């Protein structure tokens, strides 16, 4: 009888736990939609963006955005939206490293806006 009571209690706890997980957790966002929706509507701080670029991007993309190891970014805003640029900076891809955790959300958003103006 004691084993049966323990089994029923365990089963009820497991069902309750599964229900809490299913109904209480928020839905997962699709890949690429993580931080890109959180780009603030603040104007571009070009000085800060240039500083971030020089500190993190020059070695691959060149001093004038002309490209070296990485692609030319002089007209990247004509090819990608600021959200796509933001996602690329955060997640990287190909040989480009991820800057998630290395740059703040504000730095990424400002850099993405600055680059998206390059058309």
TrEMBL record:
The Cytochrome c domain covers 44-119
The alphabetical list of record keywords is: Electron transport, Heme, Iron, Metal-binding, Transport
Query: Is Ligase one of the keywords UniProt gives this record?
Result: no
Q: What is this protein called?
A: Cytochrome c
Gene3D superfamilies noted in UniProt: Cytochrome c-like domain
Q: Which domain of life is it from?
A: Bacteria
> Which InterPro entries does this UniProt record tie to the protein?
Cyt_c-like_dom, Cyt_c-like_dom_sf, Cyt_c_BACSU-c550-type, Cyt_C_IC, Cytochrome_c550/c551-like
Q: Cross-referenced Pfam families, in alphabetical order?
A: Cytochrome_CBB3
